[in-house]
């Protein structure tokens, strides 16, 4: 077993939910020789960065949090950003990870060295600019799927003299009182920001909507002291509640994505919600043009947004008719000029690239993606040609309906099975075989044929409308089932002596039958227990 002093080492990129989940599992299994490289000044990732007014989870927080670190003290069923950020800081402190994270340190590059069976790594101090070379046996990559802000390339973008803010790069000192404010975008971010800005004294807010989205209530509620007390003191209560949330969201999957029968009634229901709560004159902008394909892009679960559109200081404009920016504001295709003091870009994230230089046995990961039609990975985790490289929230592992943290923990559970033998000195590397990688990717892409996910443009797809490389097209339970145990035959193994070996894989294959049986028994017992509650 490795220790802080020596033995095989692990480099983790990113200290959001993903990087921290990996660290928790390593620590839990007794491995301490890991370092997290985080380019920001603290942990939290998404929840450190997205400090815009109204930022909140829209998935129940008792489920959108670590299964290893339940928190009985959440104030709200969908927590606000400061509370989630604090939770991630508390978890980091509790596990003693602050000393194992190199903050303000950008992970610049990693190249696989077949001779040493390690990655040669370069990191950069974000403050001094100094670069440092390091090595690690295992690389866990968790740089976040929604991290790099996307700005539209409007002509005249650089001529605009007012203030520009991106939802994920919010300026906490910005004073919007009495200002003319534009907000571009009505995805989850735009819909959470709009009602908050609408409340600012004297503000005149115009939101630009290019295409409508389904907006459903999230029903978030304040949690009172008695419930918190019960979660803290009654054994297994919070765990049982979490389980019920898991099944609730699986039911949501079944209703929205898993069958064709409910689509019609659901669209009717969602149209009724829009018609009941939003101003009539805006319905043509708000109602999606892809009614049969509800769920093809992220459904917005928001309680305040539609009501806020009734405010006299709020108006909507067609975002598809923005022609350019000029020095004063936005110019529409019909020549109308709309002056603004501030333009907020709630225009999403770049999701189809890879954020640092990574070279494997033959090529860089960008070259691999280019050759194979876009980002792809076996189970969204391992990639042919990149030994000992594991992704958290890699290709096709995002989810539009349930907790990302469940997917993250599932992936970490899977990769730990492959990382353990390396850290124990029983193998030096694992690399997924090309045929397994390709077969998996084809299987996932075929699954999209039976789903709504490719029916409209979204950040799930390459350049918005190409191959779907972000979403997992099945249920969470299916993903968990696929990840429950490693099919060792799908991996090329290099032994501790640096030679390729089938022996190790064969030994593990024979024990994985037993593991599968144990897992199946556990699931059966869990389901029986859950249904008896
Ligand atoms: C506003 C918002 C709200 C969301 N709400 C929900 C929700 O309610 N439910 C849900 O399931 N999902 C939600 N999501 C999705 C969310 O992104 C994931 O749930 C989760 O936080 C992703 O965690 P992560 O660790 O993979 O990535 P991140 O949280 O993005 O963390 C990645 C970290 O890696 C660091 N990093 C990146 N590149 C480098 C580098 N080269 N070197 C060093 N460090 C690097 C970043 O600084 C960052 O700290 C939301 C996303 C957004 C943007
Ligand atoms: N849990 C939460 O509550 C929460 C909150 C925020 C974010 N998130 C997560 O983060 C993801 C991203 O959300 P997001 O809202 O930041 O981004 P997004 O869903 O990608 O939405 C971007 C918005 O900007 C618009 N837009 C982009 N380019 C434009 C252009 N050139 N002209 C006019 N409009 C343009 C898009 O219009 P089109 O639709 O026409 O492209 C869309 O309305 C979500 O899907 C969700 O997974 C979750």
From TrEMBL:
Pfam families (UniProt xref): FMO-like
Gene3D superfamilies: FAD/NAD(P)-binding domain
rRNA-binding as UniProt keyword: no
TM stretches of this protein: 240-258, 508-530
GO MF annotations, alphabetized: flavin adenine dinucleotide binding; N,N-dimethylaniline monooxygenase activity; NADP binding
InterPro entries: FAD-bind_Monooxygenase_sf (IPR051209), FAD/NAD-bd_sf (IPR036188), Flavin_mOase-like (IPR020946)
Keyword match Cell membrane: no
Keywords per UniProt: FAD, Flavoprotein, Membrane, Oxidoreductase, Transmembrane, Transmembrane helix
Tree of life domain: Eukaryota
Protein family (similarity comment): Belongs to the FAD-binding monooxygenase family.
Name recorded for this polypeptide: FAD/NAD(P)-binding domain-containing protein
Lineage per the UniProt record: Eukaryota, Fungi, Dikarya, Basidiomycota, Agaricomycotina
